[in-house]
Amino acid sequence: MIKKTTNKKKSKLSALNRITPTLVVVLLISALLLIPVPFIKISAGPLFNTVGIEMDKEVISISGVETYASKGELNFTTVSETGGPFGRLVLVDAISAWINPTEAIVPTRDLYPEIIDPEKIRQENERAFSNSQTDAIAVALSYLKIPVTMNVVVDSVVVDSPSDGIIEPGDIVISVDNKEVKTASDVVKYVQVHQPNEKINLTLSRNLKKLEVTVVATELKSDTKKASIGISIGPRIDPPYDFNFGVAEVGGPSAGLMLTLGIIDELTINDLTGGKIIAGTGTINYLSEVGPIGGIRQKLEGAKKSGAQLFLAPLDNCDEVTSDYYKSMPVVAVSNLAEALSAIEKFTKSGGIQGLETCQ
């Protein structure tokens, strides 16, 4: 006897057959979207008011001299990185950032060619931020005609490197190949014009005594065509006042310009901001030159969301600011401290951007 299947049962089986493949596809797509990808998402980070208070701490605290409060803001901008050494970035988040004009997706290998311990990256970023603070103090005091001496000091020597046993932590670098050194970047530049295995002559100061040494360079790990001598260096100054920076979990050198402006504003009776909310970014060196940075679009986004009325951007980053999206927040191109100060003064006095070189 053959039992016939009812139309109702056939309908259920047919529906089940249709649902099962669909469910499998949905599950597969969901799984694919959650797969980690070798990219880093760059998005807008928080702003820090250099003449204000963050987390109950003054961003810049100066003691030993009279300081003056500001009615406005001088914010330095930051970016946030997700993925690579900084946690897991999945495909769906990467796609979302890729279609978002205010975020960026960068292959991990472009930013970090080698596998690097996140703790080491954090330490290097903190060191760069610390160096930018020192540079900012030196530049600001120089602008205010307050005497200050700045030296380039050896922070550490890599064990078994070409400098091991020749150069010591605490040595002051005076020159490289008879070229005067004024910043840490000078040392890097003069060393890297050499090739591996070439001799490099350095003039140092150790315990107040001048010392001439010769080091045979090895290759730089990140670029084997360039020379390295196995030292880490940084600026050191002896300012007449005590400076303290109450910012944590921030790294890199791009706050240099805004830190410099913050110090100048605190040490001068006239309010530099004119009560305006001003944001910006850019490195700064001993010549008061403003250098380019990464993540300009993300920093602009952070500033715009925070209500900034004016943004100071390095001249070399201007070609990345092409959208009308920032018309409500003029982006002014500056190449040095004097141009930044002039731009702020014109903006606060006129309330507009007449006579200013904008990036838009």
Unreliable spans are 1-6
- The gyration radius over C-alpha positions equals 27 Å
H/E series, N to C? Answer: HEEEEEHEHHEEEHEEEEEEHEEEHEEH
Under the CATH scheme, the architecture of the largest domain is 2-Layer Sandwich
| Beta-strand percentage range | 25-35%
- The N- to C-terminal Cα distance equals 85 Å
What is the overall silhouette?
globular
Number of strands: 20
Q: CATH first level of the largest domain: which class?
A: Alpha Beta
What's the structural domain tally? 2
> What is the share of helical residues?
25-40%
User: Structural class of the helix and strand makeup?
Assistant: alpha+beta
Mean pLDDT comes to 85
Please summarize the sheet with the most strands: 6 strands, mixed
Briefly note the CATH topology name of the largest domain.
Ribosomal Protein S5, domain 2
Question: What distinguishing features does this structure have?
Answer:
single chain; alpha+beta; Ribosomal Protein S5, domain 2; globular; disordered N terminus; four-stranded antiparallel beta sheet; Pdz3 Domain; 2 domains; 360 residues; six-stranded mixed beta sheet
Describe the structure.
This protein has 360 residues and is an alpha+beta fold. It folds into two domains: 43-80 and 119-144 and 239-350, Ribosomal Protein S5, domain 2, CATH 3.30.230; 150-237, Roll (Pdz3 Domain). It has helices spanning 7-33, 91-98, 108-111, 118-143, 184-192, 256-267, 296-305, 337-350, and strands spanning 39-49, 53-54, 57-58, 60-63, 73-83, 104-107, 150-157, 172-176, 179-180, 199-206, 209-216, 218-220, 223-228, 231-237, 242-245, 277-280, 283-284, 290-291, 310-314, 331-334. The longest helix has 27 residues, at 7-33. The chain is globular and about 55 Å long. Residues 1-6 have low confidence and may be disordered.
